[in-house]
Amino acid sequence: MTRLLTVTDLALRLEGGSGRELLNGLTLHVDAGEIVGLVGESGSGKSLTARAVLGLLPERSAVTGTVLLGDTDMATADAATARTRRRNDVSMVFQDPRSGVNPVRRIGDFMTESLRLCHGWDASRAKRRALELLDAVRLPHPDRHYAQYPHELSGGMLQRVMIAAALSTEPRLLLCDEPTTALDVTTQAEIIRVLLEQKEQRGMGMLFITHDLNLAAAICDRVYVMQQGSVVESGPADEVFRAPRADYTRRLLAATPTLEPRTSDVPTPDAPGTETPILSVSDLRKTYRTPFGSSTAVDGVSFTVRRGEAFGIVGESGSGKSTIARMLVGLERADSGSIVHTDLAVAAGRRGRAARLARARARQIVFQDPYLSLDPRRPVGRAVEDVMELHYPGRPGNVARVRGLLARVGLGEQQAQSVPRRLSGGQRQRAAIARALAVDPDLLVLDEATSALDVSVQAQVLELLAEIRAERGLALVFVSHDLAVVQGLCERTLVLQRGSVVEQGATRELLARPTSAYTRLLVDSVPHAGWDLAALAAERTATLGRDADEELTPHRP
Amino acid sequence: MTTVPVERQTRAGRLIRSSPALVLASAIILGVFVLVAVLAPWIAPYDPDAIDLANVYSGPSAAHWLGTDGTGRDTLSRLMYGARLSLTAPLLAILVATIVGTLLGLVAAWAGGVVDGILTRVFDVLFAFPALLLAMLGVALFGKGLTAPVIAVALAYSPYVAILVRSLVLAEGSRPYVAAYRVQGFSGPWTALRRVLPNVSPTILAQSTLNFGYALMDLAALSFLGLGVQPPTADWGAMINESRAAVLAGHPLSAVVPAIAVVLAVVAVNVVGDDLADRLAGRTRS
Questions:
Q1: φ and ψ of A128, to 5 deg
Q2: Which residue of B has its CA nearest to A419?
Q3: Which end of chain B is more exposed for a tag (fewer CB within 10 A), N or C?
Q4: How do residues A379-427 score in pLDDT, each as one tens digit?
Q5: How high is the pLDDT of residue A17?
């Protein structure tokens, strides 16, 4: 077997300033025809390793060790040599396809420019190759896409274009940096299928960077687990994930939510929530109108949430789940339908300060990105205090309550006095939760509240939510794309597709024995051992239709 | 998952943009100017308006370091006294422009809809007139002197501030933390004034610093045209105007000195403003 890449004892330290060690004694190798996973949490040095392979390390960094790509050491190679290797031997697929293409040039220009400019091909030969490649990555209409602009393609289609472009120079090694992280789970399965097919056909080696252990376990031959710039464990994927030796790997695995294997006799747990509904939503509708037409975001959605219950809303991007979350807390106005909050019969629809405050005390929200949802210049302790002072001005003990609340979510005095940018992602989200709880709401809406966090942090935040919920009898509406997380937290779940309810019911029951084809597709699309991508593709086509991917989801912030 | 941005800065760019020496020098120049303006009555060697016809167009000498002008007035003293008006007038104009522009921009962005539409059209119309033209119009309406040019310059610069504030507040207002304030029950005006405005104020401050340099130049130009401060009051623009004849007569010094003062002040303010913008932007957005 040909060895494509050998990284030996690679260390990288930024010069000046902090002088932090970003990589430390990294050793790994990739052979032809194998998929090597590089897994770890953010900041572990995964992406930096890929950059080192490409010879694109940050300037002003001190590098030791070797990165042998074939017989070239990319760590020390001069610019021209490194460029030649990048042109011929190695390609990369990035996380966000949209930031990797020039939005004002056609797909065809993008696909052919490196062939024409770097390899001197003439236009017609380059076009033939581009069309072959677009077909190889299973785009439905290569001819048409060739003349289209990036904005006309969905994220999944564009990622296929990126893969096709990366393959255009017949690389022997393909680096994939979180290529499916920004995509929906059904689209992810399709992209992975294309990648695996191409790997088989071309006998390429792949270095696959991901934070998703389930995905790595499902597709990789070997994996390296990275932590703070070093490899803490490596070996065949099934061995590492079945019997991890390193502590860190064990912790990561424990923190990673997985869908439980489907069994026929899943006991349906008794919902701890009482039967009294705290929230009844009926026939909710919302259509966004733009000068170019209208798109229906929410189409006749009804559900109830009981007091103290955790209710999940799952769906892919564009399914309307975030719109529902925003309508529940009054950030969007529904076109029709009703949202009745039991404690709010009086204040509903009324204007004025008292009604506004009453509504705030009834329900609160935690957003996906705590860095954006906290005021950048307000120390988080003060932010919580602000809310408390607004609702209970001059109440004795407010300061002590704020301190207690922050302590409850695990933030100390020092963190309370810090502005968000001085806190870690997990600490920020804890602060956001504390702020939402400051008014003692009965209902907390969580809009992808753990999606931006690393798995170990996500696990801690989920645990915190479960505890707080039990303590306060708080009802949760948990909006997420992640079925495994929802399964671990929510008693009942609703599945959305393009604004409509596909089905709803007890979570375990629903995920174990889905009655609708769409739910089954969602469940099957989650990476797992023995993942059958061909069968999944057939199921996907049957459920969504051949050209489902072509449909553009309305793009909203 | 974030990618590490590759540091890419040309050497020339680094020299010009963030040379600490240049910023320090500019700050010192501004400090000296302000100090001189404040202390003028105590440190100026002569009365700025004292005419000495026996000593016309004298070159630099021990008695008159920067020489005298066409009526024998000491150039250094006039420069020192002139700094008072030449610096206060634009400061006043920019202060008014910033307050008016910020309020209008904030209202436009926060209210949206029809209000925003109308205000934005008004800004567009005001934009169509160069500041200097508006200022001349103001002078034509209200007469020469200090008040009219200051009001006119303030009016001319407020749409610049308003457009900036509008776009800043629109961008800031779409951030989830503003939605969070809404959900927590804070009122719209409170959020806009007490939270969003302070968060965008560094950028406004930096822009206003830059505007100050332009306003100083505009007001000097008005004085030069004879539309601003009237003789014999000392003002840098007016000093250049009064020395036109002297330049033709071969005594450029009394015009060159105030001109250099204007250039130095404008460049220094711009450099400091640029640096301020970079620093504040770096601090609020990491």
A1: -60, -45
A2: B284
A3: C
A4: 999 999 999 999 999 888 899 999 999 999 999 999 999 999 889 889 9
A5: 61
Helix or strand run (H / E) with residue A230: strand A230-236
Partner-chain contact A211 B1, CB within 8 Å: yes
B175 at interface of A, judged by CB pairs closer than 8 A: yes
Phi (first) and psi of residue A263, to 5 degrees = -125, 160
Whether residue A514 is preceded by a cis peptide bond, meaning omega within 30 degrees of 0, is no
CATH superfamily of A3-254: P-loop containing nucleotide triphosphate hydrolases (3.40.50.300)
For chain A, residues classed under CATH 3.40.50.300 are 3-254, 277-526
Q: Residues of A numbered 137-156 whose beta carbons fall under 8 angstroms of chain B's beta carbons: which are they?
A: none
**Concatenated DSSP letters of B151-217:** HHHHHHHHHHHHHHHHHHHHHHHTSHHHHHHHHHT--HHHIIIIIIHHHHHHHHHHHHHHHHHHHHH
What is the per-residue pLDDT across B107-166, written as a single tens digit (0 to 9) for each?
Answer: 999 988 899 999 999 988 888 887 778 878 888 888 777 888 888 889 889 999 999 999
The CA-atom distances, in angstroms, between A180 and each of A157, A399, A529, B224 are: 12, 45, 18, 65
Q: Which of A56, A372, A421 shows the shortest C-beta gap to B177?
A: A372
Q: How far is A266 from chain B (nearest CA, A)?
A: 36
B179 at A interface, C-beta within 8 A: yes
Q: With a cut of 90, say whether residue A476 has pLDDT above it.
A: yes
Which residues in B lie closer than 8 A to residue A557 (C-beta atoms)? 174
Amino acid (1-letter code) at residue B111: A
Q: Hunting for tokens 């407020």 — which residue is that?
A: B158
B-chain residue closest to A373, CA distance: B177
- Domains by residue range for chain B, with CATH: 83-284 (1.10.3720.10)
Interface ipTM: 0.83
Does B7 touch chain A if contact means CB atoms closer than 8 Å? yes
CA of B195: which chain A residue's CA is closest?
A375
Pick the CATH number of A277-526 from 1.20.1560.10, 3.30.420.240, 3.40.50.300, 3.90.78.10: 3.40.50.300
What are the angstrom distances between the C-alpha of A98 and each of A61, A511, A553?
29, 32, 14
Q: How far is CA B103 from CA B7, B100, B119, B207, in A?
A: 38, 5, 11, 15
pLDDT value at residue B232: 75
Residue A465 has pLDDT above 80, yes or no: yes
According to the model, what pLDDT value does residue B225 have? 82
Pairing relation of β-strands A35-39 and A90-93? unpaired
Window A:276-335, CB contacts with B under 8 Å: 326, 329-331
Nearest CA in chain B to A329: B183
pTM, rounded to two decimals = 0.83
